[in-house]
Amino acid sequence: MSGSDATESLAERLRPLALVAVGGFAGAALRYAVSVALPGGFPWGTLAVNVAGSFALGVLFYEARLVGRLGPRMRLLLGTGFLSSFTTYSAFAVETAALSPGLAVANVGANYALGFAAVLAGRAVVRTASEEVAG
Amino acid sequence: MNLLLVGAGGVLGALARYAVGAWLPGRTRDTLAVNVLGSFALGALTAVAAEGAALSTVFGIGFCGAFTTFSSFAVETVTLYDDGERRAAVRNAAANLVGALAAVGVGGWLATALA
């Protein structure tokens, strides 16, 4: 094995880590920016990123299932890296635990109902788009 | 400055989550694991660290925030349901919630007891 082959295979192995890292930086930083921009009193920031990110990951997931034009690298960068870091479960759990019982139930209900609905909306968008392309 | 701190924590959190995904096969197990573990860590940190401290920003908002994920959880739950595995979908939705909330409580209690 020549030196350049070894370098190339190392680069191949590091590439997925680099994609996840870049996406993770951008996703976490943007999540923070959203939380600073939105009013306090209720965890609006976490709700907003979780719903928006679930929609986008739904698009990405069903694109892979129904169309498959995005490559694995793009999915690592956008899905595993960016969107999975942009959305968060730990802040959602800590914020829920700190709320009064009524607001805690509302927060769980909002994140779950809107998050799941956002995934379905993502699926609908991909279905419509792929039918238009096929049609 | 805070954006850089959060971003740096986000890099580590995303890479750690990626590593857990490589270690734990299965459709939902890796997401459940990071969500419960990360909620435990954030619950412990929130109980003892001052809000706005650099450690909270890097480790709490950055690392724990990126290590745990809602979007993968939502997509995995909805697609399980979509594929006819309705019981597994409901179980997954409940397990993440109960596991994460319990972890926040245990983490907070433990951190307060040790501090």
Largest interface, counted by CB within 8 Å of the partner chain's CB? A-B, 49 and 51 residues
Radius of gyration of chain B: 15 Å
Radius of gyration of chain A: 18 Å
How many strands of chain B?
0
Number of helices of chain A: 5
Structural class of chain A: mainly alpha
Instruction: Provide mean pLDDT of chain A, rounded.
Output: 94
Mean pLDDT of chain B: 96
Helix content of chain B: over 70%
Would you write up a description of this structure?
Chain A is mainly alpha-helical and 135 residues long. Chain A contains five helices and no strands. Chain A has helices spanning 3-37, 44-66, 72-86, 90-98, 101-134. The longest helix of chain A has 35 residues, at 3-37. The relative contact order of chain A is 0.16. Chain B is mainly alpha-helical and 115 residues long. Chain B contains five helices and no strands. The longest helix of chain B is centred in the last third of the chain and has 29 residues, at 86-114. The chains are: A mainly alpha (135), B mainly alpha (115). Chains A and B meet through helix 1, helix 2, helix 3, helix 4 and helix 5 of A and helix 1, helix 2, helix 3, helix 4 and helix 5 of B.
Lay out the secondary structure.
The complex is a heterodimer of chains A (135) and B (115).
Chain A: H1 3-37, H2 44-66, H3 72-86, H4 90-98, H5 101-134
Chain B: H1 2-23, H2 29-48, H3 54-67, H4 71-82, H5 86-114
In short:
With 135 residues, chain A is mainly α.
Give keywords:
heterodimer, A: 135 residues, mainly alpha, 5 helices, flat, B: 115 residues, 84% helix, 0% strand
